[in-house]
């Protein structure tokens, strides 16, 4: 036999693959384990969607609380004007006292529900000395006199716990104003 025939037989043997020696292309086209990969990708997307919905729901919950807290704090302040009795409040319960910024803040902090962090909550109360129409009010007894307005702003820095968000903190705020009645 010639050297050329021996080399041709060797090359033919190399070209024939046995089941124990799969080619790269056959490995690439193999579908064994593809269900596991598909399940992993699908499960990741489903879990990401569920946790996004939960985080969004908690953010809506926090916004609802902030809005309601501003309204309730305004109500707390409008029924405790300068004619109430001239004394400052020592508790957050209704009583014979005049509301101050500290009293309004303490009232809001006493109503904080679960999932809301008091360290991220801020309350700002102002008595601008005007009526609801913008005219100057009677401030003989101070800017918290009857017919004067009070404005309460409650803000909350909500932190998303989702790792794929670029900005994980949003500020939720609500302002409420009312005319002092007492």
TrEMBL record:
Keywords, in A-Z order: Membrane, Transmembrane, Transmembrane helix
- What InterPro entries does the database record attribute to this sequence? TadE-like_dom
Span of domain TadE-like: 33-75
Q: Where are the transmembrane segments?
A: 39-62
Its recorded name reads Pilus assembly protein
Organism of this sequence: Silvibacterium dinghuense
């Amino acid at each position: 036999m010639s050297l050329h025939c021996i080399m041709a037989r060797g090359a033919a043997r190399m070209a024939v693959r046995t089941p124990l020696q799969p080619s790269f292309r056959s490995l690439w086209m193999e579908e064994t384990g593809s269900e596991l990969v598909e399940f992993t990708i699908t499960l990741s997307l489903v879990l990401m969607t569920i946790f996004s919905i939960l985080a969004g729901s908690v953010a809506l919950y926090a916004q609802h609380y902030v809005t309601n807290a501003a309204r309730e704090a305004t109500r707390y302040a409008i029924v405790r004007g300068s004619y109430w009795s001239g004394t400052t409040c020592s508790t957050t319960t209704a009583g014979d006292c005049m509301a101050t910024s500290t009293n309004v803040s303490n009232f809001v902090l006493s109503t904080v529900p679960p999932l809301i962090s008091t360290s991220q909550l801020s309350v700002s109360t102002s008595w601008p000395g005007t009526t609801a129409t913008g005219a100057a009010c009677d401030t003989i007894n101070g800017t918290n006199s009857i017919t004067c307005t009070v404005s309460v702003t409650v803000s909350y820095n909500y932190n998303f716990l989702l790792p794929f968000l670029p900005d994980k903190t949003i500020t939720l705020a609500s302002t409420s104003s009312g005319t002092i009645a007492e």
